[in-house]
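Much of our argument rests on the idea that a fold can be written as discrete symbols. In the encoding step, the backbone of a single protein was reduced to a row of integers, each denoting a local shape. This step matters because it turns folding into a mapping between discrete strings. For completeness, the protein is quoted in full, as a sequence line and a line of structure tokens:
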Amino acid sequence: NRICLIKRLLMGKLPTYITRKVRSLSGSTAHVPKSMKTLEKENQTLKCLINSLLQDLENMAGNNDAKESEDDMKINLVMSKKSEIVHVMANGIYIWKLKCISKLKVNCAKFPQACIQSEAFLTSRFGYKMRIFLYLNGDEESSNSFISLYWQLLPHEYDVILNWPFSARLSFTLLPINKCAPPILWSFNSNSETDFQECFRCPAGRPNDVFGISDFAPVSLIESEDYVKDDSLFVKIEYEG
């Protein structure tokens, strides 16, 4: 770094006030007879000046680095706020992979009514935005007996161009790892759920009420190798709009 700074010094790429210091020193010694003692004194003075200049430059560089670091931090903070992970369904299908099921089950046992929330996903790039919740130990109605599953519509920037209320059929399947085991399926058609229309209206700046099933699948399936592989569980969501 010091070599680079000295190069900048020699190439004249210094701030004006530093250049004036060098010229002032050069002018004051231009017409003085150069005895050995005088040269040694000038040499020492120049060393002090260069060290001072280097320190000034390092301080300036440090301030710039600090400012750039602060700016980067602000940018990263803004980006992190905007970089919510949202998946897009492929041909109307989204598969949610729940990892570390054994730990999740233990945590849910410690905190009754605790649920696991999926990342948000879209029915298409400019389609409906939604997510699902799983209560591995069941909700209040099916505690320790059944896994409960709930679905929720989320506000999205393209809601204004979509048709409302939400009108579609959604299917939720707990996928078996063992092909001999049956898939666990639950589905609904929003047009038939007349008592829960608040769940299907256009979200007004906040998520809608949830809609789902209390007894989606027996809790015992979490321990079964027929549905759990590498400590992971898979739930498939299908959209038919």
Q: What stands out?
A: The chain has a mean pLDDT of 81. Helices lie at 2-10, 16-29, 36-82, 101-110. The beta strands are 86-88, 93-98, 116-117, 120-122, 129-135, 146-154, 169-174, 184-189, 211-218, 233-240. The CA atoms of residues 96 and 130 lie 12 Å apart.
